[in-house]
Amino acid sequence: MKKPILMGLALIPPLLLGGLALAQSAGVTSLRGAEVDEPAIVDQVHRTVEGRMQRNYRQQPPLVPHSIEQYQIDLRTNQCLSCHDWTKAGERNAPTLSMTHYLDREGRELDQIAGTRYFCNQCHVPQADALPLVDNTFEPSSGN
């Protein structure tokens, strides 16, 4: 009884290696018929809008009127602050962050941006004239 089990276990690695070698030799093919190594042409589904877009609802965070694609925003660096921090906004002719960004959880004023507001792209997104992905049936309440 032990001999057939050992033979079966001994055959598993060579069969797996043979199957892997066979799969690797087949080459890569595309499901769409394009060559795998040629760059794909991507249509621009949105374009950047010049000027500022109107807000859609009360207390909506302002949209960013420029690209932030190459901006570094992580634990070490926030490149938004190189222009929009209150110490530099005047010389860079950029809008200053609102004072709420300099308040901690207890409401105390800070000299630096609060940690809860450090990652700008949690609330602020670049503005784009893009078609909605789903139909928007939002209707504001009568009091707003």
Write up this protein.
- The chain has 144 residues and is mostly helical.
- It has a domain at 70-130: Orthogonal Bundle (Flavocytochrome C3, Chain A, domain 2).
- 22% of the residues lie in helices and 0% in strands.
- The protein contains three helices and no strands.
Reconstruct the topology from this structure:
Layout: H1 2-25, H2 81-84, H3 89-92
Based on the model shown, name its key terms.
Flavocytochrome C3, Chain A, domain 2; mainly alpha; transport; 144 residues
CATH architecture name of the domain at 70-130: Orthogonal Bundle
Helix content: 10-25%
Class inferred from helices and paired strands: mainly alpha
What is the number of helices?
Answer: 3
* Global outline: elongated
Find the count of extended strands (DSSP E, 2+ residues).
0
Would you tell me which CATH topology of the domain at 70-130 applies?
Flavocytochrome C3, Chain A, domain 2
Uncertain spans, ≥5 residues at pLDDT below 50? none
Distance between the termini: 80 Å
Secondary-structure element order, N to C: HHH
How much of the polypeptide forms β-strand, as a percent range?
A: under 5%
- Main sheet, how many strands, which sense, barrel? none
What is the gyration radius calculated from CA atoms? 28 Å
What is the overall pLDDT average? 83
Look at the structure and give the CATH class of the domain at 70-130.
Mainly Alpha
Superfamily at the CATH H level of the domain at 70-130? Flavocytochrome C3, Chain A
Binding site for heme c 2: 101, 120, 123-124
Subunit structure: Component of the periplasmic nitrate reductase NapAB complex composed of NapA and NapB.
Keywords: Electron transport, Heme, Iron, Metal-binding, Periplasm, Signal, Transport
GO cellular component, one term: periplasmic space
